[in-house]
Inverse folding.
């Protein structure tokens, strides 16, 4: 098969680039080895923590002056794909984390509450409601965090007969299965009524993110119906808003005519004269996939875009150059909460995000997203931003800005 | 020393990160609370079973072996293979008579074909269904697939064999049980298309059922025997330089992947020569070796369903491309969801409710698209969708045979 561009890696970055290219009239295919890191998403997207200083070689520095334009493009882009985001293009807000603390972010999926950065108003009296027997949502952590911030918290739980079915298998009492029960109809109404009955004098209710796997309507209905402010807080993975975001992006991409090869893995590459000619995959075997351009968005270590061994950090598919500290003891800091150097390791690129092999940039292989060297997803809060903004940059340089 | 080489494990189970993404995509977990879910049944349970087989849980029987957990896994763990192999190793429940009958498609076929009208009449009767439901545990809602009064092989020998000698280019055809005993028309469509694009068709030397139903019904010795027989039959064709084409995604998947990974039958000499006919035709057209001419005025609104084993194979892209490019076709790719039948699983009365609940999102999607017909490469999905939605289901090869101007196609390819 032949395409204009083949994208290897179907997560946030790969899908963003693929959609942009498809919108500009290209024919594309995405090769996706399993589901992506969006399944662990908080439902919010960070661009850069306030006050953070970009280290030299950070991917944003390669985007240059277009960065602000690209940031302003994020909300309309996701809206087109059916993912409604809120947040301010020019300043960070806060989200409430599962440990009852606040963290900076720029955008959030529509049902996720954002707070003003200066003085987050959580309310005075907070009711935290869990589903009985659901262990992936720690109410005590949240209460502890909020009480430190001066709120009074009360913890309750709701039990409905429909949850009993899921509870039969304790290992399957999970966010996704609860979200399926609460998709709509009678059970959702019953749930809302049970929560309402628990509210005494509280001005805020906190619930786990278990609403709206396919679309956000169950979450919005809960928010509208409680009569007091309702804040959703993330659960242990899998993330319901994250899965929804992934499914909506993929559905939109396919509706534009894109080919999504789910569960397949690029295993072979054909490179001649510093140009990638084709890739082969585990499922398609001898049927090589050809394209004019290729995007490498296979993610970091967890997604196997990068591999580490006692010998060093490598990019296993193309064997392109990586940037990392050759002195292995320098990969980690002993203090877990310090900035960990290995998180900045990744694929080296030139100023236009071309991957480099043996010191020479490949003419048509671009790298995008968390495979890139120089990021600081935890310390800089730039994870989603790098994924989306470098995808925009790469798509633009492939199409000459047509998208 | 590369440490990683010494930490590899069967079906990659050590790679499991406990992320639970597999469980989010398991069709059984969504409807059957008694199933422990793929992570628990697979890699988590395996750790315990390796310690002591007493930890084997008979609830693993609820796994459909649909492989959707493997397609979703970000870490490359063959979750379903771990579960299937645990059932094979530790499972104590023996297949019942009903299971043996359902799984022995190529024992029942030859028995039924000579009496096809009587068998079809009898299995269609309400009273027969009630008796089978009560005595055998075959759900009364199910209709047995109709038997043909003549096998595909018999038709081929009598009506097509001589014709095939005209062609220098040849392919071998693994027709499978369904084409042979139930629906020879699909095999005939396949032969027509291959001839029109300039290929003669050969049958294999004694093919047997691929064995998928035996695997899912616990008849492992039988499945291994079939696998060995088929690998040897396929090898003879491969030795002659032939590709082996199929029209069923499940037979294809079983022979390519289940033979080595579950049945431990080495198929390396033949694996890459087994191709779905839609993939072969796509590749011939793409390379320019073959041209297709379509009937003027062909019109159809087609919704394509990706069977689970097709999803795992990753070849749906070929069937979809072939259908979508037929002039006059309005094409919809349905969301890839399990239809719930899983071969013989949905025929069993204890599974009927679960089977229909699993299929519901797919049935609803089909109803909302309201196509002229559904296309899909799997025969058991076809039965399930036809029974549950009322929409007709056609194999892409039959769709192509209908849409092609076969004479013109033969002419432009020089025949």
């Amino acid at each position: 098969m032949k395409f204009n561009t083949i994208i290897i890696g179907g997560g946030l970055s790969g899908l963003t680039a693929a959609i942009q290219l498809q919108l500009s009239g290209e024919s594309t295919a995405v090769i996706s080895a399993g589901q992506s890191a969006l399944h662990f998403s908080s439902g919010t997207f960070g661009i850069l923590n306030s006050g953070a200083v970009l280290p030299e070689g950070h991917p944003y520095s390669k985007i240059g002056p277009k960065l602000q334009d690209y940031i302003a493009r994020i909300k309309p882009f996701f809206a087109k794909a059916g993912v409604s985001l809120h947040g301010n293009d020019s300043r960070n807000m806060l989200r409430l984390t599962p440990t009852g603390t606040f963290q900076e972010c720029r955008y959030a999926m529509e049902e996720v509450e954002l707070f003003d950065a200066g003085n987050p108003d959580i309310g005075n009296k907070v009711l935290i409601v869990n589903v009985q027997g659901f262990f992936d949502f720690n109410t005590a952590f949240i209460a502890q965090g909020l009480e430190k911030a001066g709120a009074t918290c009360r913890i309750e739980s709701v039990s409905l007969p429909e949850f009993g079915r899921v509870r039969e298998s304790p290992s399957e009492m999970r966010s996704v299965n609860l979200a399926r029960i609460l998709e709509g109809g009678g059970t959702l109404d019953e749930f809302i009524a049970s929560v309402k009955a628990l509210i005494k004098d509280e001005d805020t209710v906190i619930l786990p993110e278990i609403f709206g796997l396919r679309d956000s309507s169950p979450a919005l209905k809960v928010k509208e119906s409680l009569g007091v402010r309702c804040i959703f807080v993330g659960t242990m993975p899998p993330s319901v808003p994250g899965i929804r975001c992934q499914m909506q992006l993929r559905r939109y991409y396919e509706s534009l005519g894109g080919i999504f090869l789910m569960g397949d893995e690029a295993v072979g590459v054909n490179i001649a004269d510093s140009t990638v000619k084709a890739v082969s995959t585990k499922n398609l075997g001898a049927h090589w996939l050809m394209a004019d351009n290729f995007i490498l968005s296979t993610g970091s270590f967890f997604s196997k875009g990068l591999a580490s061994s006692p010998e060093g950090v490598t990019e296993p598919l193309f064997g392109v150059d990586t940037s990392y500290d050759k002195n292995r003891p320098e990969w980690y800091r002993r203090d877990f909460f310090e900035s960990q150097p290995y998180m900045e390791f990744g694929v080296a690129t030139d100023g236009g995000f071309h991957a480099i092999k043996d010191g020479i940039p490949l003419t048509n292989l671009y790298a995008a997203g968390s495979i890139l060297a120089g990021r600081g997803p935890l310390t800089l809060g730039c994870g989603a931003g790098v994924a989306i903004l470098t995808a925009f940059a790469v798509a633009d340089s492939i199409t000459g800005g047509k998208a | 020393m590369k440490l990683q080489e010494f930490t590899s494990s069967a079906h990659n189970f050590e790679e499991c990160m406990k992320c639970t993404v597999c469980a989010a995509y398991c069709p059984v977990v969504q409807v059957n609370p008694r199933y422990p879910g793929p992570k628990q049944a697979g890699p988590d349970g395996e750790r315990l079973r390796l310690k002591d087989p007493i930890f084997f849980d008979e609830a693993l029987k609820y796994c459909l072996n649909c492989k959707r957990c493997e397609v979703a896994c970000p870490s490359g763990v063959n979750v379903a293979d771990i579960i299937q192999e645990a059932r094979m190793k530790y499972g104590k429940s023996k297949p019942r008579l009903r299971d043996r009958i359902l799984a022995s498609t190529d024992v029942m076929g030859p028995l039924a074909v000579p009496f096809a009208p009587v068998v079809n009449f009898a299995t269609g009767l309400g009273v027969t269904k009630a008796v089978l439901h009560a005595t055998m545990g075959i759900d009364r809602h199910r209709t047995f697939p109709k038997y043909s009064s003549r096998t595909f092989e018999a038709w081929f020998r009598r009506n097509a064999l001589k014709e095939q000698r005209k062609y220098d280019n040849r392919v071998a055809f693994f027709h499978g049980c369904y084409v042979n005993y139930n629906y020879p028309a699909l095999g005939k469509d396949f032969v027509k298309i291959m001839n029109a694009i300039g290929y003669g068709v050969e049958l294999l030397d004694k093919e047997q059922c691929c064995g998928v139903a035996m695997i899912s019904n616990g008849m492992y010795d039988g499945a291994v025997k079939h696998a060995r027989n088929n690998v040897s039959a396929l090898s003879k064709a491969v030795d002659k330089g032939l590709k082996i084409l199929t029209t069923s995604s499940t037979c294809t998947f079983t022979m390519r992947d289940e033979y080595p990974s579950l049945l431990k039958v080495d198929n390396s000499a033949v694996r890459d020569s087994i191709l779905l006919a839609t993939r072969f035709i796509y590749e011939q057209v793409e390379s320019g070796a073959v041209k297709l001419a379509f009937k003027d005025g062909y019109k159809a609104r087609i919704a394509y369903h990706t069977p689970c084993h097709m999803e795992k194979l990753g070849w749906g892209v070929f069937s979809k491309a072939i259908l979508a490019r037929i002039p006059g076709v309005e094409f919809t790719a349905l969301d890839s969801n399990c239809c719930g039948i899983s071969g013989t699983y949905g025929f069993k009365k204890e599974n009927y409710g679960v089977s229909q609940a699993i299929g519901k999102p797919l049935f609803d999607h089909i109803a909302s698209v309201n196509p002229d017909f559904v296309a899909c490469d799997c025969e058991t999905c076809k039965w399930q969708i036809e029974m549950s939605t009322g929409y007709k289901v056609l194999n892409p090869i039959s769709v192509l045979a209908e849409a092609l101007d076969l004479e013109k196609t033969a002419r432009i390819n020089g025949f």
Observations:
- Chain A touches chain B at residues 1-2, 33-37, 39-40, 165-169, 171-172, 174, 176-177, 180, 237-238, 243, 251, 254, 259, 261-265, 281-287, 302-304, 309-310 (CB under 8 Å).
- Residues 322 and 347 of chain A are 4 Å apart (CA to CA).
